[in-house]
Amino acid sequence: MASAFQALDTNGDGSLSRQEWAAAQLARAAPQNPTQQQLMSASKKDPERAKLIARSKDSDDDSESSIDSQNGSADSRCGHAYSKAKRCLGHWIVKWIMPMFLFAGSTLISMWLLHVGTFYYVKIMDRMEAVYILNPNYKDEDASYLSPGLSPTDVSYGSLQDPIEAQLGWKKVNLKTLDLVAAFFPCVWGILVLLTGNLQNWTKILMCNAALAIGKGAFAAMTTVPDSIGWAHCKERLGPVALEFFRNEVPDPTKHGVWSTWMTILGAELFGPGFNRIGSGMRFCGDMVYSGHTYFTVLYILAFCELLRMETKRDGSLLRISGDTKRKVVLGSLYMLCILEQCLEITLVIQNRFHYTLDVVMAVVMTLLWYTSAPICIAAKWWTAFGTKHWHHRVTKPEHLELSKAARDEGFILVPRDSLISEGDVWVPAFCIPFCCLNGRHHLISDKAFDDWGVRDQEKEDSDDEDYERGQG
Fold first, then answer.
1. Of 36, 174, 255, 287, which is most buried by a Cβ count within 10 Å?
2. Residue 26 CB partners (closer than 8 Å, separation 6+)
């Protein structure tokens, strides 16, 4: 600042006028950021001082640009994190919604095929009523061990023989009651699986449901099995609107082709028999093989039990139960509740003659086969991990390669801990007869995992060593 006052001392005696003093104060308050013109002026008077000022300016500019760069980098990171969060959310939504689309699509296909089977059953029974005449002189003496009825108004008229149903007799059960019993565990499981966020269990169960639904529809369309409850109750179940549709509005396949018949039924499946609503609103007849209520109940009981078994011992889970004894007591009690509910459902189905005993047993077997199916488990695990970090890791670091070599020399394989994830988890339930003694979780590992772990390299080395030893011998 002394130089500023000296520059303003026009009198030469060290005194300043009022205007000169004010100008000096403004110069002092001004930011010390010299302009290019000031630098050129200073360089003529004092070159060394000009260099220092220039370096100071460059340093200030670099500092400001560094701050701007950091702010820009932070903004960039925030933007990247936001974009990544949006992608992750979309990825998560797709993973949960796609199995639901699979479930909905398979249900539509199943119902369409079941109504195709219903159409053929209605035509068969109409023809039988028109052609066959009952013998009025026949007396049915002591034939209680036979389940089919003899007259069109009898229960199970036109059905197949079922000794167990004949033994139990017939008891009317409200279909809504049966539907509520079958829907209990699916609802409970759905709430729990969403609360726990178990995507793999969600995917596995809905894939099993899709396979079972399409299988049931395909069987009904392939072979028409007489309805177990009989023709009279079947007509009551369908109602006059559905009967009129199947009898007179569905094109004759011999005249118009099978394609026309099936497409008309598909249209009714989507928009009703009068094409005036969403959904068919029609029940089925002749949809015997296999029991839909039974497979639905068994499947979601298995799903419920497996989910509880996993979540009650997983750290951080909402359903975690501390203490092994307490956990076993809780799970055992819930298992017994599931078994009782399933027994109730099967009893109601058979007593009402909603299905044959064969249909119920086949539904249980088919559900267990699909539920413990390795391809289903692998597909569910693959879908859960799809788009995430790869499961397996090949040993590549030099220090790890040395460890791997030392392990091989001793007959072992070095396996990274992060890669110990199976391709599929197969749960064998305790009531999976006759394999109940093998109950528990079992794991499937792919050949790629073996390749990443170097198992095949070890096998090749062992084979080469054996060949060498035989050659030496």
1. 287
2. none
- The per-residue pLDDT for range 152-174, each reduced to its tens digit, is 888 888 899 999 998 888 888 88
By the 10 Å C-beta count (0-12 exposed, 13-18 middle, 19+ buried), 259 is classed as exposed
Joined tokens for residue 291: 């029991």
Phi-psi region of 375 (alpha: psi -120 to 50; beta: other; left: phi over 0): alpha
Three-state DSSP at 428 gives strand
Three-class SS state of 149: strand
| Average of per-residue pLDDT across 387-412 | 74
Cα distance between residue 50 and residue 43, in whole Å = 5
Q: Where are the alpha helices (DSSP H) in 2-46?
A: 2-8, 18-29, 36-45
Cα gap 296→298, rounded to integer Å: 6
* Partners of residue 444 on adjacent β-strands: 424
Q: Is residue 399 a contact partner of residue 457, using CB atoms and an 8 Å limit?
A: no
Could you read off the pLDDT of 436-460 as tens digits, one per residue?
778 787 878 777 777 777 766 655 6
Q: Which residues 6+ apart lie within 8 Å of 448 measured at CB?
A: 392
Q: How far apart are CA 208 and CA 225, in angstroms?
A: 24
- Give the number of residues written for the chain: 473
The residues, ordered by sequence, that sit 6+ positions from 329 with a Cβ below 8 Å of its Cβ are none
Cis amide bond preceding 145, omega within 30: no
pLDDT at 14 over 50: no
C-alpha 65: how far from chain center? 50
Pairing mode, strands 424-428 and 440-444: antiparallel
Phi-psi region of 92 (alpha: psi -120 to 50; beta: other; left: phi over 0): alpha
Bridge partners, 157 (sequence order): 149
CA distances from 6 to 2, 11, 13, 14, 52 (A): 6, 10, 10, 8, 21
Contact 338, 305 (CB under 8 A): yes
CB 266 within 8 A of CB 112: yes
| Distance (Å) of CA 207 to CA 70, 91, 157, 175, 219 | 49, 19, 37, 27, 18
pTM score, whole prediction = 0.74
Cross-strand bridge partners of residue 149: 157
- Tokens encoding 139: 């007396």
Q: Which of these ranges, 215-219, 287-291, 332-336, 438-442, has the smallest mean pLDDT?
A: 438-442
175-211 tens-digit pLDDT: 788 888 888 899 999 999 998 888 989 999 999 999 9
Measure CA 108 to chain center: 18
